[in-house]
Write a structure and sequence with these properties.
Layout (H helix, E strand, L loop, with lengths): L1 H22 L8 E7 L5 E4 L1 H4 L6 E17 H8 L4 E5 L8 E5 L2 H10 L19 E13 L5 E6 L9 E7 L7 H28 L28 H4 L5 H19 L12 H4 L23 H21 L2 H4 L5 H16 L14 E6 L7 E7 L10 E7 L7 E8 L29 H14 L15 H15 L5 E9 L5 E4 L5 E15 L10 H7 L8 E13 L9 E14 L2
Parallel strand pairs: 2-4
Antiparallel strand pairs: 1-8, 2-7, 3-6, 3-7, 3-8, 4-5, 9-10, 10-11, 11-12, 12-17, 13-15, 14-15, 15-16, 16-17
Length: 599
Amino acid sequence: MRFVLAIVAFVIAAGMIVLGIAQRTIFLEPASVSLSTSVEDARFAVVESSALNAVPGSQTITVSGSDTIFLAYGRTDDVKAWLGDEPYVDIRKAKDAVALSSKLVEPVAEAESAAEADPADAPETVTNPAGSDLWLQEFTAETTLTTTLKVPDGISLIVASDGTAAAPTEVSLSWPTDNSTPWAGPLIVGGAAVGLIGLIIYLLALLHLRRSRGPRRNLPRGPRMPQLPRVPRPKSIKASQINGSGKSVTRSMVAVPVILVSGLVLSGCSADFWPAASTPEAAVSATPTPTGTEAPAQDVPPPAVTVPQLERIVTGIATLTVDADANLNAEALATRFTGPALEKRLANYKIRGVDPAIAALPPLPTSPLRLTLPQQSSTWPRVVMTVLQDEADTATAPTALVLRQESPRADYLVEYMIQLEAAATVPKVAPATIGAPIIAPDSTFLLLSPDQVAAAYADVLQLGEASPSFGLFEAEGDSFRTQVTELKNSRKEGLPTTASIEFGAAAGTGPTVALATNDSGSIVAVSLTETETVKPVDAGATVSPEGASKALSGITATAKGITSTYGDQLLFHVPAAGSNEKIVLLGFSQGLISSSELP
């Protein structure tokens, strides 16, 4: 009976082990699923979201077929907006299809009708997608590019070479699949255990059999049988003549199962052999899901940028600004600055070119963004406001930037660069993943329309308490107003009796930017111009500009007089209409932008 049990155990063990091994060999599913397609006769290709998410999990993209390969991903609408009227190969996967499809899209008719309607709307000359501010992330390589991403719905890839040469011809997508076999480990180890039990039963059966052949009791003698002839005795056979090794057969039989069991147990140590093992998804090193790309509420446009996207943009601008400031490179600066911010910095370059002793303007901080408020927009132009604080110099006030992107292929340009007041409290705003709507310049839902803020504040600077707008603005904490008053008094006191001085203030030419806050108010960025006119009052008298005014005007002395213009960049919080609060100045920046002789 023991031998029967041992044989049954050996059969069960062999079946379990074979089944466990088969799950990891002949029955094992592929570790990934791949789809591929070709790109022909186009400079650009777009891998749609339907293709990227055809299979759940992270996406490994392999692109080849050109000397230079460029790959970037962004919102699908942004990718299509950048392409505009460019022909491109559309790569997608239909719901019931088993393969990727590629189709050449040529929006030529739309391009021609748009150009006829308005020549200004014709496609821009920028053709290389590398470095565009629209991309959430981009990659470049030579010959072959492979990267692993994890992007959600609503994100597409753009594939190109350099925007001029043909796009890479081969695009392949693959996704990791769960090919773990949670029962392989239990089957193999369980089979080994059952086999071990069978071996023990077999050894016990052998032991029992040997003991059963011991001395027996004496039986009664029967009649004596005649003696038979003796049979020749066979020669003894040595153990080495049976297996040729000289080793005991019994030991070999025991050693083989032990080695087999040990090997099988060790082979089942992989996590894929056991239930509740980690899925391939968790093991793949993939690019984090782009933040801020979640679909906003219905009928609400998405935010213009994500925080990582804006950090990359601001870092690039800061690096360029440092180099441009050091080399007084106005041409390079103009690629990233515009409006009042550009005007102020260009004037500083001109001044420092004449008088190097005059200090440069503060650099742009490169630290992480403290606040990001993008405009909710799926069209152009787009606006975003952000606040930066230099972590290495916390004594310096934070810097607020207002950036504008005029079109899909244009870069974001710094339009306003403003230092916040030391005691300024920025009102609560929507998170960066939602963004804020732009407020119309003539909106009547605020205490004062955004397009009237600059003129009203200029009037306060000019007339003080006599201004009709004086009561609309909070005086406490407004250090700029105090600074302007002190500067005027200082200029008057230092003026010789042979000259007179006049001051003026008016709304500047910079665009008004207003983004909504959570309290139904708005953060408003505006520009002002302040003028200072010095004239001689006596016949034959002259006036002599000094410092930056002298360097900018190039005049040593004049009998006509001189006018110096200062550009002011101001940031306000304008409360909602009917509020008991006043308009608060959050920050300011001032600099000399021109100086010239009177006609």
